[in-house]
UniProtKB/TrEMBL annotation:
Transmembrane segments: none annotated. InterPro entries: Metal_Tscrpt_repr, Metal_Tscrpt_repr_sf. The keyword Ribonucleoprotein does not apply. Keywords: Copper. The keyword RNA-binding does not apply. This is Metal-sensitive transcriptional regulator. CDD domains: CsoR-like_DUF156. Belongs to the CsoR family.
Length: 87
């Protein structure tokens, strides 16, 4: 299943924001910032990436179902593995 780049625009934007947040975490570490602040920002990056991953899996599954493919043609085990890899 190939993802439509137009549908991935929000996901791409989310990942770009996460990249910016991660750059901020690196700067915070280099500046010797407070542990709590660093961990809070790192958790935000992690959540953003998790949400991007879930959005990709959900879009892929939706695409399979709306493009005329029936549930029998969807590799459920593969989709489950992708979903659980984000857990």
């Amino acid at each position: 299943m190939e993802l439509d780049p137009k549908e991935m625009t929000p996901v791409i934007n989310r990942i770009k924001r996460a990249r910016g947040q991660l750059d901020g975490v690196l700067r915070m570490l280099a500046d010797g910032r407070d542990c709590e602040d660093v961990v809070t920002q790192l958790a935000a990056v992690s959540r953003a990436l998790d949400r991007a991953g879930f959005a990709i899996v959900a879009t892929g599954l939706q695409q399979c179902l709306t493009n005329g493919d029936d549930i029998d043609s969807v590799d459920v085990k593969k989709m489950e593995k992708l979903f659980l890899s984000l857990a």
